[in-house]
Amino acid sequence: MRREFLALLFGLVLGRPALAEPAGPLGLGHPASPEQIAAWDIEARPDGQGLPPGRGSVREGASLFAARCAGCHGARGEGGPADALAGGQGSLATAKPLRTVGSFWPYATTLFDYVRRAMPFDAPQSLSAGETYAVSAYVLHLNGLLPEEASLDAASLPKVAMPNRGGFTADPRPDVPAGR
Q: Whole-model pTM?
């Protein structure tokens, strides 16, 4: 199922249906190759599985954030045209919760995964693994979760203790595999 979804997604990005047979009724499309699918199969899981090699520091992330992220998220992650990334600790149980990386997100690997896939907005997937670790480190620092001298890599990122890690519950539906 996952392979078919990725093939369909890849086809949509290219502007043609990836799952259609070339000899289909419209004569459009072709099956996605394993290499094409692998290029989009970049999931980083909470336990760190799927994280690529690389390393990035808070200091490196500060300059990358200023150049590539601050225009949308504010100089210190306070928000702007796009959502705030920092702040909001202690606000989830209030009438006006501020859902940020530091107040709401349960896993630091989710931040890495999202930045890697979708950011910066004008050039998704343009950051290297090291740059993605650096930006993630800086955003975690802005939330008080990493000291200024910290660096992140595939071993250290999953160990970052997010404040809301226990704030989510497992999906109770019997047809959903455990851990999803």
A: 0.78
- Is the pLDDT at 28 greater than 50? The verdict is yes
Taking the C-alpha atoms of residue 161 and residue 107, their distance in angstroms, rounded to an integer, is 8
For the purposes of burial, counting CB atoms within 10 Å of the CB of 12, is it exposed (0-12), middle (13-18) or buried (19 or more)? exposed
- Least Cα distance to 2 among 30, 52, 35, 43 occurs for 43
Question: 113-142: per-residue pLDDT in tens?
Answer: 999 999 999 999 999 999 999 999 999 999
